[in-house]
Amino acid sequence: MAFTIAIDGPAAAGKGTVGRRLAAHFGFAHLDTGLLYRATGRRMLDGEGPVEAAQSLRPGDLDAPGLRTPEVGQAASRAAALPEVRQALVDFQRAFAARAGGAVLDGRDIGTVICPEADVKLYVTATDEVRAARRLAELTASGHDIGYDEVLADLRQRDARDSARAAAPLKPAEDAVRLDTSKLTIEEAVAAAIAEVERVQ
Ligand code: C5P
């Protein structure tokens, strides 16, 4: 039976890590939907129109190198404000959510728009400073030369744009369970998420 877990929240709050670990724990598939928008943003930076890019994404686009940079994140966020771009990505996400073995999707509008009937909805947050420090550590570990202030400004700018847009803005679904990971280790955050899934399973 399809069992769907929707995880939403602002940039670098821990959605991806919690999503991946939850999926591994329950044997579900995991989709980081931000990659769809990042791949679209990447192709936009290469000169393609965002709508055409979103409509013709190929699986290989999702594991292209360099998708995690702030520059691509900003392009993704600009593309993501366009209703036609979002529309082009809906069917793929819904089909993924409906797979028989169970699925975890993380993004900004999974619990509100893509999977309003999800079995579990989590809204993962952390303070701006904690999120910036975590993202800085990730970027530095993968060889990027960037400072804390720049990372913090980037996250805040994307969150503001993602929250203010008319099309599927970033916001918690009414029935989402909030998980603030600011003071939690990864293990604690994952344990809290697992407990929430087990409560409804
Ligand atoms: O999750 P990530 O930070 O990689 O997402 C990059 C951008 O893609 C976000 O800032 C947001 O604008 C967009 N996005 C979205 N809806 C999703 C996932 C990501 O609008 N479900």
From TrEMBL:
Compartment(s) of residence: Cytoplasm
Keyword annotations of the record: ATP-binding, Cytoplasm, Kinase, Nucleotide-binding, Transferase
Top-level enzyme category: transferase
Domain Cytidylate kinase residue range list: 5-46, 67-198
Binding site residues for ATP: G9, P10, A11, A12, A13, G14, K15, G16, T17
This enzyme's EC code(s): 2.7.4.25
GO MF, any single term: kinase activity
Catalytic activity: dCMP + ATP = dCDP + ADP; CMP + ATP = CDP + ADP
Claim: Disulfide bond is one of the keywords in the record: no
InterPro entries: Cytidylate_kin, Cytidylate_kinase_dom, P-loop_NTPase
UniProt family annotation: Belongs to the cytidylate kinase family. Type 1 subfamily.
Protein name stated in the entry: Cytidylate kinase
Source organism per UniProt: Roseovarius aquimarinus
Gene: cmk
